[in-house]
Amino acid sequence: MRYVAFLGSINVGGNRLLMEDLRSALRYGDFADVETVVASGNVLFTHDEAPSEGLAEKMAWIVKDEFDIDSMVTVRTRDELAATIAENPFAGDGAENVVHTLFLPDDPGEHQVKSLQIDHEGRGNERMAAGAKCLHIDYADGVGSSKLTGEFIARRLGMNGTARNIRSMKRILAKMDELDAGES
């Protein structure tokens, strides 16, 4: 089964990690056909079919053990990634570089999302919508100037996540399809 892992805190904030080193470490951890897409913690791999949560925990443990980096890891199948892109309500009308999905380890609770929206009111033009194990965000005025930070979101949702923009997710999905077509 082919999966994609999204690793948080990779090549940001001083957590420098060469993708070749990451690929090598994961291969020794029984992850096969390991490829990285962009140097920001997007890992494509095959593995015996297993629960995504278990694969995420295993990968996070390897990253901590090998590189001393605490990384929030989420794992999705190809179909889960495609569904996440399709369910993003902002994907069609926002710029692909500012419309993001914050991948989460679990579904955000309705109460937590409402709290986040209320606490953010008046702080910016961002739009948010809950999704399946994610939060979709349109950073209308750009991510860099936004007050809707990962820390702000994590405090309200009670969990950390790692975000990718629509452009990156489409590129990753295309790469997964390319790899699957090459195996046929």
UniProtKB/TrEMBL annotation:
Signal peptide: none annotated. Pfam families: DUF1697. It comes from the Bacteria. This is DUF1697 domain-containing protein.
